[in-house]
Amino acid sequence: MVCASGWQGRCGHFLALSSALIAGLALAGCRAEGVDGPVVAAQELVPVRVAEVAAADQAEMLHFAGSARARQRASLTFQVGGTLASRPLQLGQAVAAGDVLATLYNPQLEPARDAARARLAELQVQAAQARRDLQRTEQLFQRGALSKADQEQQAARLEALQAGVRSARASLQQSERLNSETRMRAPFDGTIEDLLVEPGEFVAAGQPVLQMAASGGAEVEVLVPAELLQGLEVGQVVPVWSVLRDVQLEGRLAEIGRGASIGSVLYPLVVSLDAQVMAGEALEVGLQPVRKDGLSVPLAAVMRSAEGLSVFRLAGERVERVGIAVAGFEGERALIGEGALAAGDQVVYAGLSRLADGDSVELLP
Questions:
Q1: Which of 158, 156, 171, 85 is nearest to 121 (CA)?
Q2: Is 184 exposed, middle or buried (0-12, 13-18, 19+ CB in 10 A)?
Q3: The domain containing residue 350 runs over which residues?
């Protein structure tokens, strides 16, 4: 570059500034693209909570809720239809076996009984007359005054009337039984639990009118999963707790259901109680699951994906996905077989929604 003599000083100063600027830009470029490549931002830590994988050596007792009811109970009905004439009962009233609990009025029953009684009496009179006629016919036949055919005809008439008497007697017994069905009697000693029909209302044959329960003995029915039925036997003692009174009672297995209820995968279990409890009292039955070998993890730690069930295991400061097979449940924990996991391993149970395999994590207390 050629400069005039007057401008030599200024030109030298400009060249120095240009050289410094070019050198600065070159240095910045070297720092931005050095041998280590572009600068990468630090990875964000995912906050999680972890729990230990435990040995499933002792299952926790499970509680199942139910309500107390009388061991012997009945829903009483009339075998004939009619109008409920009387029902002198109150809820909770004690009754004895044989007591009349309610009466029914049916205008057809008494006339039918009277007609059957009259028909029987008529046939009995006719049969008695036919018997006397047969005796006279036999006397005349022996004297030769009547033929054998006349004698046989009179004997056949007597047999027909005797069959009619038997039929009329059966009809009268049936009519009397139907009349006796208009009076409902207590089948056993107990108390009235529910009144379903009021006096003056029409009652169809077989329609429940009231419910009663026996005085002694109570039971509770609960629904349990099939796996808890293993090892249970009728007569086995199980703990029962009264929820309201906060006391523990003793119960015995009275019935073990072998078929699930309709639309359910639970099985009925009936436990009898010797202690005095109120009908409808809230109770809990305790069952101890059969001991199982293996490991257990929190249910919240188990994830479902296209590959199956898995958990995130803590490995240093990162997590890794581990496949598992669930064999059962104990309360809030899942039972798994021994495999990739071991007792004492830590698995993530909170913060799973933001977690991926290989992520770095921050442990929360």
A1: 171
A2: buried
A3: 47-59+293-363
